[in-house]
């Protein structure tokens, strides 16, 4: 059973507009969530995270929103840039684990100039 | 700091052969993780080390897989009697104080023919 679901395999956005990537989770024990970005032939790169005690975390152009009651989080990128084109992975972590991250399947974002 | 490095970057082997991959984490990081990523999936946790101690293993880590981190620095992942289903990208990640914000290496792509 998939504990972290990214239901959109791909997303295409115009440069300068907002990109919204969505993620749903089923494990109620998750207390920390992360977004990673991955370019081809590279490993995932940490982007932004949020603790379950918060509902929003912002870092420059990137904002993550968490809705615990809906078990849903989203990543907003404003404004989107062509260099943001990559695969974005959502991950959850159980506070009782040792950092075992559970990843979704990823969403491929394409930002068109 | 040169980041997490992995060698080799690519490995092609015949079914039944043994293979070994190496991961060099960021030097001051005491936590080290191995993940496996297959096509269209997110990374899946395999095992975790804190210093030289292997503290957690996924049920994905069959008895053909063994991982070591002998001096708490670099780590090796060995797969014995490889099978075609072992074909995947093997990712290593390390972290220091935060168990969650993990830094990934570029991965080793294994192809079993």
> Unreliable segments of chain B (pLDDT under 50, ≥5 consecutive)?
none
Envelope shape of chain A: globular
Question: What structural class should be given to the helix and strand makeup of chain A?
Answer: mainly beta
Order of helices and strands of chain A: EEEEEEEEEEE
The dominant shape of chain B is globular
Helix segment tally of chain A: 0
Assembly classification: heterodimer
Largest β-sheet summary of chain A: 6 strands, mixed
Number of strands of chain A: 11
Mean pLDDT of chain B: 94
SSE ordering of chain B? EEEEEEEEEEE
Give the termini distance of chain B in whole angstroms: 36 Å
Strand content of chain B: over 45%
Evaluate the radius of gyration of chain B.
13 Å
Low-confidence stretches of chain A: none
Sheet with the most strands of chain B?
Answer: 7 strands, mixed
List keywords for this structure.
heterodimer; A: 113 residues; mainly beta; 6-stranded mixed beta sheet; 5-stranded antiparallel beta sheet; globular; B: 113 residues; 7-stranded mixed beta sheet; 4-stranded antiparallel beta sheet; 50% strand
Please tell me about this protein's structure:
The complex is a heterodimer of chains A (113) and B (113). Chain A has no helices and 11 strands. Chain A has strands at 4-5, 10-14, 19-25, 30-38, 45-51, 56-59, 62-67, 72-77, 86-94, 101-103, 107-112. Chain A is globular and about 45 Å long. Helices cover 0% and strands 50% of the residues of chain B. Chain B contains no helices and 11 strands. In chain B, strands 2, 4, 5, 6, 9, 10 and 11 form a 7-stranded mixed sheet that branches. In chain B, strand 7 (65-68) and strand 8 (75-79) form a beta hairpin. In chain B, 37% of the residues are buried. Classes of the chains: A mainly beta (113), B mainly beta (113). The interface between A and B is medium-sized, with 24 and 27 residues.
